[in-house]
Specification:
Number of helices: 11
Helix content: 55-70%
Order of helices and strands: HHEHHEEHHHHHHH
Radius of gyration: 19 Å
Shape: globular
CATH class of the largest domain: Mainly Alpha
CATH architecture of the largest domain: Up-down Bundle
Strand content: under 5%
Distance between the termini: 40 Å
Largest sheet: 3 strands, antiparallel
Strand order of the largest sheet: 1-3-2
Structural class: mainly alpha
Number of domains: 2
Length: 239
């Protein structure tokens, strides 16, 4: 236990990694919602470690823009505005499109069937729509595609960008419910391209257009309280 309390050595690095993944997962699951104050001592106590690795984890999340630090206030989960959302979605469209195309040849028939099964579950869920469940399944579906990417650096970038959107995903599908039905149709189109061995450029274009359509659906909708606030604030969050 001494190595985790000293803040040095491989043990400290392991604890820092552990804290990073736990905190990031809680942000993604919206357990730590935007604005949530991250109290280092409390988190360290929950994880049975010193504050040193937790502080390192917080710094890493701050570099990823998931966490904001304010002097005399401390760290909290970042709030997100429209411009950040647009930029992340545009970047993710490019990165995920490339990763999906590169990973397509490595997908076995069983992998494709598993992805299609997830999409079928999403289709069945449309009748009694639950945005939170739909969002979780949506992430599952896309992970089935991009995790086959053989380029580890590109894969890390895709995962990091998904992380930035982790506290944004739920409400596009509730705010623009028609987008959910279009989304599952586009999923099937991407799967058919992969299944038939379509050119990588076609798969990449379909994946990128899919992401762009979600962004377009969000931007096309007039916010209900738009007249009462600056248009750059993102009160409603999304995938």
């Amino acid at each position: 236990m001494s190595d985790t309390r000293s803040g040095s050595g491989s043990g400290a690095q392991s604890k820092s990694q552990q804290a990073y993944h736990v905190i990031k997962e809680r942000i993604i699951r919206n357990e730590y919602s935007p604005g949530y104050r991250l109290v280092l001592g409390r988190i360290a106590g929950e994880l049975d470690m010193s504050v040193v690795p937790v502080r390192e984890a917080i710094r890493r999340l701050e570099a990823e823009t998931l966490v904001t630090y304010e002097p005399n206030v401390g760290a909290h989960v970042s709030m997100v505005d429209d411009s950040q959302y647009r930029h992340s979605m545009q970047v993710l469209g490019i990165l995920e499109g490339a990763a999906t195309a590169l990973g397509a040849p490595a997908m076995s028939p069983e992998d494709i069937e598993s992805a299609r099964h997830i999409n079928d579950q999403m289709i069945r869920g449309l009748e009694h729509f639950d945005p939170h469940s739909f969002t979780a399944q949506n992430h599952q579906f896309h992970s089935m595609l991009f995790t086959h990417c053989p380029n580890p650096r590109l894969l890390d970038l895709v995962k990091a960008e998904w992380g930035r959107l982790g506290n944004l995903r739920d409400s596009t599908f509730s705010f623009v419910p028609g987008r959910a039905r279009e989304s599952v149709r586009e999923h099937e189109h991407i799967l058919q391209l992969v299944e038939t061995g379509a050119p990588a450029s076609d798969i990449e274009a379909a994946a990128r257009e899919h992401r762009g359509a979600t962004l377009a659906a969000y931007l096309a909708v007039k916010h209900p309280d738009e007249t009462d606030r600056p248009p750059t604030r993102l009160e409603t969050t999304t995938h």
